[in-house]
Amino acid sequence: MFSTIEFFIIEAFRSFRRQALMSSVAIATITVSLTIFGLFLLLIINMGNIVGSFSSRLDLVAYTNKDLSLEDAAAIQVKIARLIGVEKVEFTSKTEAWNTFKSEFGSKLALGEIIYENPLPHTFAVRVRNPESLPALAKEISNMEVIDEVRYSGKLIEQLRSLIGAVRIAGIALVVLLSLATLLIVVNTIRLTVIARETDIYIMKLVGATNTFVKWPFIIEGIMIGLIGGGASFLILKFSYDSAAVKVVQALPFLPIVNDPWLLFCVYAAMVIGGMGLGLLGGYISVSRALKNET
Amino acid sequence: MIELINVSKAFPSGIDALHNINLTIGKEEFVFLVGSSGAGKTTLLKMLYREERPTSGKVVVDRVNVAELDSNQVPFLRRNIGVVFQDFKLLPRRTVYENVAFALRVTGAPRSTIRRKAMQSLELVNMLRRANAFPDELSGGEKQRVCIARAIVNNPPILLADEPTGNLDPTTSWEILQLLDKINKRNTTVVIATHNKSIVDEMKRRVVELEGGRLVRDQQLGSYNV
């Protein structure tokens, strides 16, 4: 048993070396395909992350009526904070708001000459846990007597949510298509190495090799090709992503670039394992096809 | 050992390769299959190791109708039949030893057994001293000896040879025939398809003649021509 497994591995290496050019072509193909695949995967993950972080930043703003006292406002703040789905409530008194406004615009406008009295209401900036609960919360808060108006960007959230959905569907479709294309190329490349070894296969069958026995070296060869291709695309992607991420963070600091090591590890592992799987499947399909042609 | 009952073979192209063949070959017999090219000798041999299936009839090898054999059983049939070819069919990038060991490897035999049997087989055909040579470095006769060594390494009860001397000079041909005779004497059924007249006449063994896919002669102690 052990000597048979050893034989398979030696055979796989032998064929791999003998068809160095063909093997290199197969490896390059897998590398390119998996790199594109990984690139899209990272792009999709990052888009999802950006959309997600934007939608979680969306707040609901409630304006009180102008005559509300600070004490009553404090009570309302507690009341809002206790509502289900509310993460945080920030209170800005009308005096604070007026001062901020004046300090920002006061030098440009002679405000004191136009407006003598603070026209602003107290405001509550409400951060919600889940963007989906925004409409219901907005309604609940606006029903409070002292609240004049509630604003939130409901439409924008809807649009963002459908964008996330579209990105996800497009991403899945793309990944499936790319995998199929890669598989096709790998199958055909390994098929060339199988054709080059048709005499070997014929003689193996003639001296009484079972189909399973004939298949193994090719499957191992496929796995080797896939592993090397997957590994190469992992290295290419890791270095380009890391350097691109640095540049993006410098240029657009507000964009949240994914750098969760575990998530990235999963992406890279998926590429290496994916390469291996593609190679395995490619080897299996092409040798099975060659065997089917025999009687 | 081998029995063909009403065997016919028509190829899809319409060529009638064999027509209603009935033939019985006993254990440890030595049989020449003669006839001109295209008479159906190769097709008949191929049916025995199931590279071809008959269109109709039964091909019984060691009590099994191989025409009906399930394809996943074919490898096990082939381990019991050694085949020798005119063009040797050796693997060019493997040494003589590896070529012979190959036939044992596919059976999953342990390494020590592979080594022992391959060496024995090479010794029998007198090729042990060239064990590390590659096929390209061998003469035609030497290649045929390696091919025979590979065919018998599993100790098959049946050895088939398709024009084993087709590419060899008369002296070498004679040596190869002596070798096949030696293997026959070690309790192996030997069937040789040939159109080498001098060898058939010299050996004086059973001769089965095919002509246009029909069995036209079956003669003990026969010669090439009637």
Biggest sheet details of chain B: 6 strands, mixed
Content-based structural category of chain B:
alpha/beta
Q: Output the strand order for the largest sheet of chain B.
A: 6-7-8-3-9-10
Query: Which strand-content bin applies to the residues of chain B?
Result: 25-35%
Mean of the pLDDT scores of chain A?
A: 81
- How would you state the average pLDDT of chain B, rounded? 93
Unreliable spans of chain B: none
Task: Identify the overall geometry of chain A.
Answer: elongated
Portion in helices of chain B: 25-40%
The biggest chain-chain interface is:
A-B, 19 and 26 residues
Instruction: Work out the oligomeric state of the chains in this entry.
Output: heterodimer
Distance between the termini of chain A: 27 Å
Distance between the termini of chain B: 26 Å
**What string, H for helix and E for strand, traces the elements of chain B in order?**
EEEHEEHEHHHEHEHEE
- Alpha-carbon Rg of chain A, integer: 32 Å
Number of helices of chain A: 10
Mass-distribution shape of chain B = globular
